[in-house]
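#dry-run=false #mode=assembly
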Amino acid sequence: DAKTTQPNSMESNEEEPVHLPCNHSTISGTDYIHWYRQLPSQGPEYVIHGLTSNVNNRMASLAIAEDRKSSTLILHRATLRDAAVYYCILRVEYGNKLVFGAGTILRVKS
Amino acid sequence: DTEVTQTPKHLVMGMTNKKSLKCEQHMGHRAMYWYKQKAKKPPELMFVYSYEKLSINESVPSRFSPECPNSSLLNLHLHALQPEDSALYLCASSQGWIIAGGSSYNEQFFGPGTRLTVL
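#status=ok
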């Protein structure tokens, strides 16, 4: 399984945008980039995924570098409820397996 | 209903006990998963069931025995556990392999977990 590298922690102010980076220099052509987050005392939840193009959904945006060796999860306006551990995960197309890395702890200040 | 439920929420057991964890979903998902999460660590995959058949076992010790009686239920039978098995056990489900608009996705829905303590 290809590896991802994320900062251990990041801090943001409430109502401001947050850019969470992820490096995946060994990504293969069939790897999708997935983001999950885990709020305190809860199971992980899906945030967004993409292959090559930038993606938007109601929760976040995913910006993928042209060479696909890195990506950035963008929360457009952080709220206190966005404080969580954010995991960047590579998964092969049609694959069931999620291999979680250490993730980034996001703290949001009011 | 987009919920995965797990029971019990908390479980304390001795090393000689036999207990079971239960997971249920009613989203029509055909893939179900068990993960183990130690404190301040990421979840680690244990087992994957696909269409009620065990498809992935991540070399989990035999004291953990999964069972998928039907497409909505997933059990994890526990026997002769060790204190180091104390962890949060997470269940998840997904639809399986879906093609939509030319791309495939397999979002996993997680339950809140069972906090297991082995004395």
